[in-house]
Design a protein that fits this description.
alpha+beta
């Protein structure tokens, strides 16, 4: 399953694995951050944060806001996945979604 991980140091990776995204968030329960649908992509996306983490994630937070999240401080690693609205479950990102998220990340680092 394709997803995006933005670490607290601002690193951007696209790991794989069915349930690995949960491990990447840490041991605390993840918090879902609703995001706006990406224009020109198939299906919605969602952001996940480890709200219990103490390290602020400036770059990850900027990316979440660009993608439609509420402007606030975001802490811990940020994971962005696809989202199946009907089943209310995580799914992998398609190529268009991954490209749009990468563009948001590049803009946040500009």
């Amino acid at each position: 399953m394709r997803y995006v991980l933005i670490g607290t140091a601002g690193t951007y990776t696209v790991p794989g694995g069915i349930e690995r995204w949960k491990t990447d968030l840490g041991t605390q329960s993840p918090t879902r951050v609703p995001l706006a649908p990406l224009p020109g992509t198939l299906g919605p996306i969602t952001g996940w944060i480890n709200a219990a983490a103490t390290t602020m994630n400036d770059i990850g937070g900027e990316v979440l806001v660009v993608l439609g999240a509420t402007g606030q401080d975001y802490h811990g690693p940020v994971v962005i996945t696809g989202w199946d609205e009907a089943a209310e479950t995580v799914r992998g990102l398609n190529s268009d979604q991954a490209a749009a998220i990468r563009q948001a990340y590049d803009d946040a680092n500009a």
